[in-house]
Amino acid sequence: MATSALSEIDDLVKQIKDSKIPEKLSERILVRLSQLSKLADSQSFLPEYDRINKYIEWILEIPWDKKNQDNLDLQNAKKVLDSHHYGLNEIKNRILEYMSVMKLKQEKGEIEDVYRAPILCFVGLVGTGKTTIAYSIAEALGRQFARIPFGGMGDPLDLRGQSKMNPEAEPGKIIKALRTTQSINPVILLDEIDRVTDQGRASIMGVLVELLDPEQNHNFVDHYIDYPVNLSNVLFIATANNTTNISTAVLDRIEPITMPSYTDAEKITIGSKYILPTALKNAGIPEGSITISDDVWANIVRPLGYDAGIRTLERTIDGIVRKIAHMMVEGKGKTFSITPQNIKEFLPQ
What we know:
With 349 residues, this protein is of the alpha/beta class. It has three domains: 2-61, no CATH class; 74-258, P-loop containing nucleotide triphosphate hydrolases (Rossmann fold, 3-Layer(aba) Sandwich), CATH 3.40.50; 264-346, Helicase, Ruva Protein, domain 3 (Orthogonal Bundle), CATH 1.10.8. Helix content is 48%, strand content 10%. The protein has 14 helices and nine strands. The protein has helices at residues 2-18, 23-37, 45-61, 74-84, 89-107, 130-141, 157-160, 173-181, 201-212, 248-251, 264-283, 297-301, 311-329, 343-346; strands at residues 120-123, 145-149, 187-191, 220-221, 228-229, 235-240, 255-258, 290-292, 336-338. Strands 2-3-6-1-7 form a five-stranded parallel beta sheet, sandwiched between helices. A two-stranded antiparallel ribbon has the order 4-5. Strands 8-9 form a two-stranded parallel sheet. It is elongated and about 85 Å long. 29% of the residues are buried.
């Protein structure tokens, strides 16, 4: 038993020495492994070995020095943003301004200041595109993307992790986002930060202040990892339905940007030029197989009354496309024209 245990410890020692984790953390783990080797014949060896083995697995999966190279081509960024979003020019310009500052600082060699980004917080009603604009920013910059949902979150440990002395302990959602993206400079979306529970609001807002403050987030300590992790290269983006339930301290560190509600005319453009082509592609239907009369779009845009966002519109168009896919498979035609006379046959009930 002792020989096998010592062999397993030697494997862990080799993994640590071959890794690129911070030197002080490496030294700390090697001391613990040395202490563990002296317990090889003890009954407490296996539980302690399992605990430190799990810890080392997490430590090795953190991208301590892995970065994505930013794509600061403004023309490419504009193309990406325009391909996913109609209108929203003020928001797009704000993103391009931020990228321009980054580009100028990079050209001057001010690498340390390049990533001091404003924390954009998109505020608006459901379905107005808050989450998708965050995805587009990551794509435009060429960065990895992770989303952390705050809806219903009630415990700050969800973000900060639990002490590894707890048998079921694991890191918080921030460290998990870094592991998922395998990048120390991803775009991390803090989604619906206003929807945390009343009981946990104050403590969660306290963690958010630390995450969003450039004076603090370069030394973020997750309780499980128990070692400072530099988050200053992360581009945090937040969303909220409104700012009423966001603490003043957090509001001081974010830049709220209001997402506008869409008019019927804007929805028609979005539906015909963005949502319908995507729905056809996802359904495997050739482009041009469906023709929708201009007179019909008003029914498609507002089948049940006014809606500020576009989720109802997406569901309606997806329903129309699914029905046509079914009809095509049954051999009822290869092209379909939707008119005021037959629209009720295609609208989802």
